[in-house]
Design goal:
CATH architecture of one domain: 2-Layer Sandwich
Pfam families: Ribosomal_L10 (PF00466)
Protein name: Large ribosomal subunit protein uL10m
InterPro entries: Ribosomal_uL10 (IPR001790), Ribosomal_uL10-like_sf (IPR043141), Ribosomal_uL10_bac_type (IPR047865)
Strand order of the largest sheet: 2-3-1-4-5
CATH class of one domain: Alpha Beta
Helix content: 40-55%
Shape: elongated
Low-confidence stretches: none
Number of helices: 7
Order of helices and strands: HHEHEHEHEEHH
Subcellular location: Mitochondrion
Keywords: Mitochondrion, Ribonucleoprotein, Ribosomal protein, Transit peptide
Length: 242
């Protein structure tokens, strides 16, 4: 059964609560009654200072840093490369081709290398150790062979190198690879140095040789004139006898 008349209320409800700013007297009261924590009885400067815990350096970390120092000390060429992820087979193949030219691949960590370089003469290499890096080291300056191998490995990008205690950029390494070998440079230097003394010697000998030739020609002329005079005298003596 439903009633014959139903009242249904429609529309929004009356909102009786609106935000209203706090009265300034109440604000003053709240500020005055704000809780202030009491000061400690003993000043902080009078308390015993905390003992700073000094972290002991790990022995394995020191071993790795010593190995990095030996790498920079015992090798004439140390190249810094950016290493991107690549399959293990390609890594083994790259190391095999580099080992043919007596170039070794060293995987290093930045937290191991950076403290070593910051205290050495190679500190200018620090900006290169940002991402994941590897070192290509060799006791010989095999820059040309290294660039030839890295040309076929796009995942390894050359950033810079230290060759014979000289820090070079990528462009500097490429220019160094274009230089002739040490034996050829030494031969060219010896040839250039021996050319100047030979030219000087020839210039110094030209005057005396020319003077000797003139004297020989003068003596020959005098000898010819003497022979001619003696022949004329013999003919006159023969005519007088007849």
């Amino acid at each position: 059964w439903l009633p014959s008349l139903q009242l249904v209320r429609r529309g929004s409800k009356a909102v009786t609560r609106h935000w209203k700013a706090m009265h300034f007297q109440r604000q003053k009261l709240m500020a005055v009654t704000e809780y202030i924590a009491p000061r400690p009885a003993v000043p902080p400067r009078c308390l015993t200072p905390r003992r700073e815990t000094v972290e002991k350096e790990d022995g394995y970390r020191r071993l790795l840093q010593r190995q990095v120092q030996e790498v920079f000390r015992d090798n004439r060429m140390v190249a810094v490369c950016q290493y991107n992820s690549m399959p293990d087979e390609e890594v083994v193949l790259m190391r095999h081709y580099l080992r043919k030219h007596n170039i070794e691949v060293k995987f290093v960590l930045n937290e191991i290398v950076r403290p070593v370089l910051s205290q050495s003469k190679y500190k200018n290499l620090l900006p290169l150790f940002v991402a994941r890096n590897i070192l290509l080291v060799s006791p010989e300056t095999k820059a040309k062979e290294m660039l030839r191998v890295l040309k076929g490995v796009p995942q390894v990008n050359l950033l810079g190198a230290c060759i014979d205690d000289t820090i070079l950029s990528r462009q500097g390494v490429e220019n160094f690879a274009k230089l002739p070998s040490l034996e050829a440079s030494q031969g060219q230097t010896v040839g250039a140095l021996s050319l100047l003394p030979s030219q000087t010697s020839s210039l110094l000998q030209r005057g005396p040789a020319h003077l000797t030739a003139l004297l020989d020609q003068h003596l020959r002329r005098l000898r010819d004139e003497g022979m001619g005079g003696m022949a004329g005298g013999t003919e006159s003596m023969a005519g007088g006898t007849g």
